[in-house]
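Q: Hi! First time doing this. I have a protein sequence and I read that you can turn it into a structure. Is that right? Here it is:
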Amino acid sequence: MTADADSTAALLLGITAAMALTPITLLSWRGEMRAWLFWVLHAVALSGVAAALAQHLATGWSEHLVQALWLSLLVVLLIYPLVAWRSRGSPVLAPLLYPYLLALAIAATLLEPVQPHEVAQETVALSAWLAAHIVFALLAYGLVTLAALAGLAVVLQEMALKRRRPSALSARLPALADGERLQFSLLAWAELGLALAIASGMAHQVLSEQVLLRWDHKTLLVLLGFLVIGLLLILSRRTGLRGRRAARIVLTAYLLLTLAYPGVKFVSDLLAT
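A: Yes, that's right. Below is the predicted 3D structure, encoded as structure tokens:
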């Protein structure tokens, strides 16, 4: 298949993935729906995103922005059922999660035609340590993404309590205490994932380049995100830090990791070309 045909196929599958995310996004905003319908639509969305990603992976692993966005989407969709399972099968965060994922899918689809051809074709050989690093980093980023959405839910619930009147959105989000518990649980697992990602990344760097760390923007942002999450977990345990202040720190950690992962790729792929 030619490069133009690959690009066209990726664009069409991107549109299909965005369409697959649309029904569950709309229904999650409408409110209550039967559990079986919710999970069927989740499976449809997951299948659409997986197909779009598979098209990108067909020619091998590459370090470009569009593939990173589809990977982030897929990981979050894979992790989310575990979050719902821990919440007794309730589709918590759905009114925030699916619009966010749909926006990411639309962004990835729109960026497909402007993705530089030479960047899209740069493939990377995956060693065992590099593969482990990528898996742990993706899992950590997916967990931090969900934690950030839980933090946003906490902020919205606090605002509703301050007004003494729940909004249509806050009424469909977890209660304040439930949102905080979910937020810190996700952060704890994300911190473990980041620790494993950093350790496996170091092992890869030592074996491939004989250096412990490559001191670039991505490394610094990841280390900052790791430190911010660790500090928040310590403060929450020792001082009882909760509510909007804690949620803001979670969102800061999410921003740091977003700048480290898709952010750096956006600059290198599109702005630096």
